[in-house]
Structures are given as structure tokens and as C-alpha cells.
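Researcher: Last one for today. Full complex below.
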Amino acid sequence: MIESQRHSYHLVDPSPWPISGSLGALATTVGGVMYMHPFQGGATLLSLGLIFILYTMFVWWRDVLRESTLEGHHTKVVQLGLRYGFIPFIVSEVMFLFAFFRASSHSSLAPTVEIGGIWPPKGIWVLDPREIPFLNTPILLSSGAAVTWAHHAILAGKEKRAVYALVATVSLALVFTGFQGMEYYQAPFTISDSIYGSTFFLATGFHGFHVIIGTLFLIICGIRQYLGHLTKEHHVGFEAAAWYWHFVDVVRLFPFVSIYWWGGI
Amino acid sequence: MAMSMVRSAALRTALRGGSRSSAPPKRSFSSSAAHDDAHETAKWEKITYLGIASCTILAFVVLSKPHPHYDEPPPYPYLHIRNKEFPWGPNGLFEKKHEHH
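Model: Here's the assembly. Have a good evening.
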């Protein structure tokens, strides 16, 4: 931190990334609409927008890492603010996924006459909840245990053990995603097969998407741990990833119980 | 008075990420924070191994079961819904299974 600064807050430098991210989001939205309706150049604009957003994410977070790890701007007060900011973000994610689980239970608790008045709808062959769904749930919970192992290893100053623990966490996450892909591939129904297919793939698909985001987050933490960025006293990025990971593995229980199990028997 | 000050300080450090190892003089009870974390690390390592072992066994059990065969359902109007063409063509990206029929 700069010696002349008489407070512990981080006053950020002007940055081009908010406006570049906004322009990327605008191009993505307009490009997406153009692509889904018969306009020319929609796919190009959509791809450009997505590339712009991904680029912005990369350089913005690179700047944050420089500010915290190299320039020391993330004082105890700043770390507290980051934690306070991450909690409502996770709460909003829980509410986002809850909406899809609610859509599923809304459709299944009183099935309409258009789908035969039963759940699962007539003609839908559902997946056996005792097979891959039952296997994938403990896989994700085990990776939750592995991330706790990594956390204690960081706190105990066991740097190598923490890297191993993160490798275990990420490996279990990849196995989960692999099995989920296999399940989707083998599923006898698709997203366009009745309200069952729509709610099933929307809920499990968005959960799976969050698993992938969490996996990328943990991979970054693993690399940073390997490079020695994370210390006993200062590892907010890892804590955020661990919270996010627990959110993802706890939320897995909802689709497992309500969609696969209750809704599939 | 002194007790309450200690307590509020403890609360503050807990909120600020539980910087257990930041200030050695603040330790008030017998076991040291570093020792606790080492113990917890070993415990969670064992739990992880237990989880991996049981998931591996479960994976063998689940994957060794034969694949169920599904009959093609009657063409109910709510199945295989198509309201308009996809930007890339007539079929969904992951719908190979419908091409066989």
C-alpha cells in the first residue's frame, strides 16, 4: 500500500473494463436476438459480444489479482467488504435456481390435463433416480469435503497439501460434469419433450452450468495456491470459491430430491 | 469490562475471516490454532478419501447395470415440440435420437 495513504480503504483507479463489459453485454444481447430471428450477421455479433465479455472478465480479474496480491490494496477492511459483497451474490444465485425448482414443482404438483393429468407426463420415460443421479450427488458432496480439506490446509500453512486437495476437488467436479453429460446424452427425452423436459433441463442444466463456473473458480484458486498467492491470513478468493462450491453442492440436493427422485417415481 | 472487550474483539476477528493465526498473543485457550488446523486438515483429508472410495464403489455398481430400453412413445402433441426452425436447421443440437425414427 502507498505509504502516504491514511486510511485502509481501496480507492480504485479508473478502469476501462466496466464500459467494455457493458458494450460486450449489449453486443451479446442484440446479436443473440438477431441470431434467433432471421437477421443477417447475428451469429457474428453474438460471437463478438461473447468474446468481448470473456476478454473483459479475464483482464478485470487480472487487475483485481494485481491490486490484491502485488500492490497490497486488499487490507482487512477491503477483505471484509469483499466477503459482504459475495454473500448477497450467492443468495441471489440461490433465488435464481429456486425459481426453476419452483417451476418444476408448480408443473408437477397439479399436472394439467394437456399432459395427461399425471407426472411424469404420459409418454415420458424418466431416468432412474437410483442410477447416475444417485451417484453424482455423493460425488459432488465429496468434492465439498475436499474443498474443506483445502481450506484447513491453507489455514495450517500446508501449501502442498492445499494444492493436492484442490486437485482432488476439481477432479471430482470434472467427474460430476462428465457423468452429467453422459446422463443428458442417454436421456430418453429432450428439452422439447413436454413441460417435464423443459423444467428438467432448465433446472439441472443451470445447476450444471454453475458447477462448471465453480470448477473454473477452483482451478484459478488451485493455480494461485501453487504460485504462492494465497496465505494463511489472506485468501479471500479461495474463501469465495469455497462458499460458491458449497452453494453448488447444497443446491444439488434440491433437484436430486424433488426432480429426479420425487418427480421421477 | 475487560472480559467484554475481549469478547467483542473475538467477535470482530471472527467476522473478519477468523484470522486465527494472525496474532499469537490473543490466544486464550490451551490448544493452538495451527495445531487445530493441522488436525482438521488430516480429518478432512480422510473424509475426502472415504468419499472417493465409496463413490468409486457406487460407480461400479451403477455402471455395471444394463441400460434400460425405452419404447418410442406415441406422438403426443406435447412431445418433440417444434414451433419454428432453429437458426442452424430443422433438428435440435443434441437430438440425434429423433433422427433414427
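Residues 33-63 of chain B form the longest helix (31 residues). Residues 39-63 of chain B form one domain.
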